[in-house]
Amino acid sequence: MITALVQFRLPQPVSREQARALFAASAPSYRDVPGLVRKYYLLSEDGTTAGGVYLWKSRADAERLYDAQWRRTIEERYGAPPSVTYFASPVVVDNLAGSIETES
To answer: Which of the residues 22, 49, 54, 69 has the least number of beta carbons within 10 Å of its own beta carbon?
Structure first.
């Protein structure tokens, strides 16, 4: 599996309440994205940086989402271009599901 860390600086700090509204509005668009296992929205404590942590089945799945149109959408919505950093995730502990997944 692959974890992608997406980050962008916000032009103006936002509160948790503002971020919740912004993120909730975009959340449905991530339902049923092929290969996306889970997404966590992120907001820094000072409200100046936002982004997400995405768990993907493969890097190819992630790269299909993070195309030029997605980058434009993020920049238009939040006022800043996103950066994407990829990490291998060979082991995932899920305490809610009570499972540990390893790459095969």
So the answer is: 69
